[in-house]
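Hey, sorry to bother you again with one of my protein questions. I've been puzzling over a protein and I'd love to understand its fold better. Take your time with it, there's no hurry, and the full record follows here:
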Amino acid sequence: MWWIVWLVVCVVCAAIEAATPQLTSIWFALGAVAALVTSFIAPDLWWLQLIVFIVVSAVAVVLTRPLARKYLNKNKVSVNADRFVGAEGVVIQPINNVLGEGQIKSQGTVWSARTESDEETIDAGQTVVIKRIEGVKVIVALK
């Protein structure tokens, strides 16, 4: 009788996996298959089947998740603001954190800019590198 439960769990997990673009339940389908096999070997030991399900699912997650992440995110492309991080820009309005002033132009886009420290000021015309983006402002440092 337990083999029916594990078969249903396996089919449901496989259906969820097929319906989603990311890996979500394949590990549990593998655990259910192992528990299904165990149910034929030890049909009355439901607790053993449950342990096999948990252990196989956990091992499958631990062994395959890092590899899956590495290969599934391989073609990740920077979009929108991410492409500006690390880019160079030219200061078009002097940057002064204390006064809350400063603008740069990078890749044809004008950004409000701040330095990493409040003491540092950067004059117009200097070249800077964008370190990160915080909200609608870029944090820059001299090149």
Helices lie at 2-19, 26-41, 46-72. Residues 15 and 119 are 58 Å apart (CA to CA). The mean pLDDT is 87. Residues 80-142 form a domain with the OB fold (Dihydrolipoamide Acetyltransferase, E2P) fold (CATH 2.40.50.140).
